[in-house]
Amino acid sequence: MASIGYRRGGWELRYRDDQYVQHVERFPAPPTKRPPEQVLDRKAEVERQLRRGSYISRAERDVTFGVYYAKWLSTRQISSARAYTDAQRAANHVLPHWKDRSLSSIRPSDVDDWIALLATKMGPYSVRHCYTLFRGPIRRAVKDGIMTDPCIDVPLPKKPDIRKSFDDVLTATQVDAFVAAIVDADPAYAALKTNGRYRAMVFAGAWLGPRWNEMLGLRRRDLNPLRHELTFGRIVVNQNGSHLYEERNSKTEDHRTIPVPEDVMTVLIEHLDTHCAGSGPDDFLFLTTNGTHPHRGSFRRDVLTAATRRSKMPVKVSWLTLRHTAASLMFDAGLSLFEVQQRLGHKSPIMTAEVYTHLMRERFDEGRTRLETYMRERRTAPEVPGEQQETSGQA
Q1: Would you call 261 exposed, middle or buried from its count of C-beta atoms within 10 A (0-12, 13-18, 19+)?
Q2: Is residue 153 part of a domain?
Q3: Same domain for 276 and 138
Q4: Would the N or C end of the chain have less CB density within 10 A of its end CB?
Q5: Hey, how many other C-beta atoms are within 10 angstroms of the C-beta on 361?
Q6: Do residues 330 and 273 touch, judged by C-beta distance below 8 A?
Q7: What is the spatial distance between Cα 74 and Cα 227, in angstroms, rounded to a whole number?
């Protein structure tokens, strides 16, 4: 049982927890005949928690979000690239707002106000990312019984529509024109070693649809010309300035081997002969003339944007445009949803369908036409009642 006494200018609540460790909680207040309601309420709460086995010490109740965030962060199993991004978001948008707040003082309305504030400064995906970093430590604290869950019915901003249509991608002829425009015919640039250096990279990106980091991680050993296959699995993340990470697993934590069309394989082999002469099996396929990985921003500016301008493409081409183009061309070639999913490296065909629903529309229509043709050929033509009556009357 807990006991209350007045000592040294304040009220003291003394009790032993479920591990028989003695605790003393002090409440500054003047001496009175009856202890303050705050002390009596805390005494009743402690005794109730000890009876039910749900006791939480005062120090645990007053722990700050920053302390629990550090505990939660130490248990996460994520890639180094994700850890870098999380650290930036947390330092700029999460910890400055919540670090010094005690967990027990966080209310649902506080979370709603914070989300609304973030929505005025960043896009929906960034807001959701910040909310994930906030929600993780909170759920850990809720499991430990330190607080009630304030993350209930939080109004997060709606995700933008990411579905792609045929207006967002290139056709097969436009891909050829775009790849040709990577070579600058201007005499001032024609002799440069970098001129046309990434033609094979862009051509393969538009037909195979790898992620940017997967293409950077492609090594010579990943190319199998005899079987016309290519293996994606090792990724290189370097768009974070001077931070360079090399990882063995892809975004979906696996390796995938895909068949490569002959024309794409021919272009890749030509690239090997021209720009990778003397390279070993573990050397990367697409490097700068200095032997470093191309940075995403520089590549977009110097290669993709320049080729878009020279080829006068109606679409602003980025690496993501090439990935969407590859999906469009695969559907246009008649590949099934599951085949496209495997080539793009999506974990689920649901993801493929959500993004590329509009690109599949022609395939749906063609499937209906093929099924109608099949039905006309295979089914017995039903008799028409009117014709049967006329035949009976003539008899």
Answers
A1: middle
A2: no
A3: no
A4: C
A5: 13
A6: no
A7: 44
Residue 194: pLDDT band (50, 70, 90) is low
Amino acid at residue number 137: P
Number of domains in the chain: 3
Whether 294 and 286 have beta carbons less than 8 Å apart is answered as: yes
- Tell how many helices (H) and how many strands (E) occur in the chain: 19, 8
Phi/psi for 324 (5° steps) reads -65, -35
Q: What is the CATH number of the domain that holds 265?
A: 1.10.443.10
- Which residue is associated with the tokens 């768009």? 239
Q: What is the CATH number of the domain that holds 70?
A: 1.10.150
* CA dist 236 → 85, 96, 217, 244, 381 (Å): 15, 31, 5, 7, 61
Rg (CA), the chain: 32
CA atoms of 76 and 80, how far apart (whole Å): 11
Distance CA 260, CA 343 (A): 10
Tell me the pLDDT tens digit for each residue of 40-64: 888 888 788 777 776 676 667 778 9
Give the structural domain span for 304: 166-359
For 310-346, how does the pLDDT look when each residue is reduced to its tens digit (9 = 90+)? 999 988 899 999 999 998 888 888 888 899 999 998 8
Cβ proximity of 36 and 4 under 8 Å: no
CB-side neighbour CA atoms (13 Å) of 99: 8
Q: What is the mean pLDDT of residues 102-109?
A: 90
CB atoms near residue 122 (< 10 Å): 16
Cα gap 142→144, rounded to integer Å: 5
